[in-house]
Amino acid sequence: MATPVDQEFLSGINTRRKTNYQNINEYLTKNGTYKKGSDAYNRRLSAVKDFRSKNKRQQTVLSGGLIEESKKIYGSLADLYNIPELKTIFEDAFVNQWTADELIRQIDNTDWAKTRTEAQERFDVLQTTNPTQAAAEVDANLTVVRRVLATKGISVTDDQARVIAEKGTRSGWSGNQWDEYSASEAIALSSAAPAQGGATQPVSAVTATDLRKIAKDFGVPVSDTVLNDWVNQISTNRKTADQFGEYARSSAQTLYPSITERLKTSTFEEIVSPYKQLYAQVLETPEDNIDLTNPQYSNLFTGSDPSKPRMMTSTEWVSYLRKRPEWQNTQNAVREYSSAADTLNKIFGGMR
Fold this sequence. Notes:
Blueprint: H1 4-17, H2 24-29, H3 39-63, H4 66-74, H5 87-96, H6 100-108, H7 111-114, H8 118-129, H9 131-152, H10 158-171, H11 176-189, E1 193-194, E2 200-201, H12 208-217, H13 224-235, H14 241-255, H15 268-283, H16 299-302, H17 314-322, H18 331-349
Antiparallel strand pairs: 1-2
């Protein structure tokens, strides 16, 4: 009696070829037409073995044993399976027996690889493949965060300082960015804490400029009236800078529904940073001058169907930018048109 796996194989064969094989032997011999050991018989036997092997690999995936088995094929590369966005890629690679080179090519084509900065991708990989080293880098930057905040008179808890250090490490902050971003992140994380005797310990002084920076990080427009109201309430301990950060995050999630989940752990600026870099390259504009909160770039967050919003892939974004009128005035466009003109001249110029 055929096993369930063989029955599944025969069902597929019978459907595609409009045959009626009842068992594997009938298929292998084509109902007695092929002799055992013949080339035709062996080709069919190879197909059966491949199907059985693929089914076994699929069962390995379902049983949770993929990582150990995958390491036998891909070595340490298999550790990247722990990155959520790459799980499906690794499952396909294992089931279909891709080579390591093919797996790497497929990873390079994922949104995970395309929409992250080099620093973010490096740290995500490091956390998966060498968590000890990743932790050591965060620890080293934790010292930087504490020094910066101490010079600015800003107090945070040890856990909050570590959150800032990890975010900066993953984002690849350098130089002045540690000074600027550590302070703004600390303000967003700070909250009023009970002091001895039940009194309230005031948080560090917050200005409208500080809060405007937080709002900008989340891509949220805020009026001066609203900012001043928040500053007043924070200074009198009725609200905290942390609450303003959550207000900005919540507002951003409403404004940009396609990235709601990502906004739970990242700021708007962190998410759009790779897109700003592409904008600067394609339209030859200083990155500091790019404001992706402008409604004219709303397509970035809706894709081609506003009723089912999703963020554009990097390929779609580049294509969109090259269709904008500004691109016609770039050196990129001039070079491309010149190249096209030269090609046409070579093709038609020589024809008489």
